[in-house]
């Protein structure tokens, strides 16, 4: 089993943003983060999960059971529920508007295809050690832009 924790955030929204993930694989912890000078919180939340899945695929471990924990209801609900309607409706929302961040949703959908993933949500800033560490790494990423 592989455990993933992910987070993303911005200073201002939009504004400078960062993403981070922690992957526990074979009792080894891998942390990674990045940043963009002008982005949104939702883009960074999605990017964190995308980058974690890219890492897992690069390790050849996509056949493992994966648990992804995010503090983003947007990511969890989007990939487990909303995406099915979006694809069926030509990437339009229930209000017939284009889906925001479509390119990221498509990338996440492609990376998640064929993988057994359990999606979990944790309240941000609630004391979960791995979520708190991801948040720290998000800020390391944002601060690297300065």
The overall strand count is 5
**Largest beta-sheet details:** 5 strands, mixed
**Looking at the structure, what is the overall shape?**
globular
Low-confidence stretches: none
At CATH's second level, what is the architecture? 2-Layer Sandwich
* Integer tally of domains: 1
Question: What is the number of helical segments per DSSP (H or I, 4+ residues)?
Answer: 4
Report Rg: 15 Å
| CATH class descriptor | Alpha Beta
- Helical coverage, percent range: 40-55%
Could you say which structural class the secondary elements and strand pairing correspond to? alpha/beta
CATH superfamily: Ribonuclease H-like superfamily/Ribonuclease H
EC number: 3.1.26.4
Pfam families: RNase_H
Catalytic activity: Endonucleolytic cleavage to 5'-phosphomonoester
Family: Belongs to the RNase H family.
Brief summary of the model shown:
One of its GO terms (cellular component) is cytoplasm. It contains four helices and five strands. The chain is an alpha/beta fold.
Can you describe this structure?
The protein is of the alpha/beta class. The protein has a single domain (2-143), classed as Nucleotidyltransferase, domain 5. Helix content is 41%, strand content 29%. It is built from four helices and five strands. Strands 3-2-1-4-5 form a five-stranded mixed beta sheet, with helices on both faces. A hairpin with a 4-residue loop joins strand 1 (2-10) and strand 2 (15-25). Helix 1 (41-58) runs parallel beside helix 3.
């Amino acid at each position: 089993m592989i455990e993933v924790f992910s987070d993303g955030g911005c200073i201002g929204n939009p504004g400078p943003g960062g993403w981070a993930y922690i992957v526990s694989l074979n009792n080894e912890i891998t942390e990674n983060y990045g940043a963009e000078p002008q982005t949104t919180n939702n883009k960074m939340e999605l990017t964190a999960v995308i980058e974690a899945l890219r890492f897992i695929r690069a390790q050849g471990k996509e056949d493992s059971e994966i648990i992804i924990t995010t503090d983003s209801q947007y990511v969890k609900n989007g990939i487990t529920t909303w995406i099915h309607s979006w694809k069926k409706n030509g990437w339009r929302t229930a209000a017939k508007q284009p889906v925001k961040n479509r390119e990221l949703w498509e990338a996440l959908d492609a990376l998640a295809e064929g993988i057994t993933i359990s999606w979990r949500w944790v309240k941000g800033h609630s004391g979960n050690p791995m979520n708190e560490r991801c948040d720290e790494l998000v800020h390391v990423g944002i601060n690297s832009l300065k």
